[in-house]
Amino acid sequence: MSEPASPEPLLTEPEIAVAVRDLAARLAPRLAPDAIAVCLLTGGIWFASDLTRALANLGRPLSFDAIWMSSYGDGTQSSGAGAVVAGLQRPLAGRQVLILDDVLETGTSLEAARALVLKAGASEVLTVVFALKPSSRPGRRPPDAFAWEAPDRFLVGYGMDAAGAYRTLPWIGALP
């Protein structure tokens, strides 16, 4: 059995923290007083946690909910469908919603979450991701905001994984 590949570091933990604080400063003026953050699980929880705390530090605390979605499973290719494993727990009708995720690649999960949140009656939906990868799908909707323009590599760490591995790294790397 061969050793798993080691990720090549791309973004350090301090660089991630600066990017998240900068994003929070850009987002804070756009937020309604009753805005709610909706995190896409599982990968988005690291980013959502950091961003919502950064917004609270700027005087913009948010309500919080999550949607557990899966389009990759334990593979490295999107299935092309964002399956909902567990849905929303809070009412969204008439509220501004920030959908938070770790990375925008194909856009499948983000679009499925956006449709779900709109169906729940959100008055406005902002999609926010930490890492924006180059578009790999024609017509992919760009996020409303992102923290870092990522290379077209297989990213791991800070919520991103390879079949469950590397997700808890505090930095972002790329697998060969």
Keywords for this entry:
single chain, 176 residues, alpha/beta, six-stranded mixed beta sheet, three-stranded antiparallel beta sheet, 3 helices, globular
Overall shape: it is globular
Largest sheet: 6 strands, mixed
> What structural class results from the helix and strand content?
alpha/beta
Uncertain regions spanning at least 5 consecutive residues: 73-79
The oligomeric state of the chains shown is single chain
Q: What is the gyration radius calculated from CA atoms?
A: 16 Å
Q: How much helical structure, as a percent, in the residues?
A: 10-25%
Termini separation comes to: 18 Å
Q: Spatial order of the strands in the main sheet?
A: 4-3-2-5-6-7
Tally of alpha and pi helices: 3
Q: Strand tally, please?
A: 9
Mean pLDDT: 89
**Helix-strand sequence:** EHEHEEEHEEEE
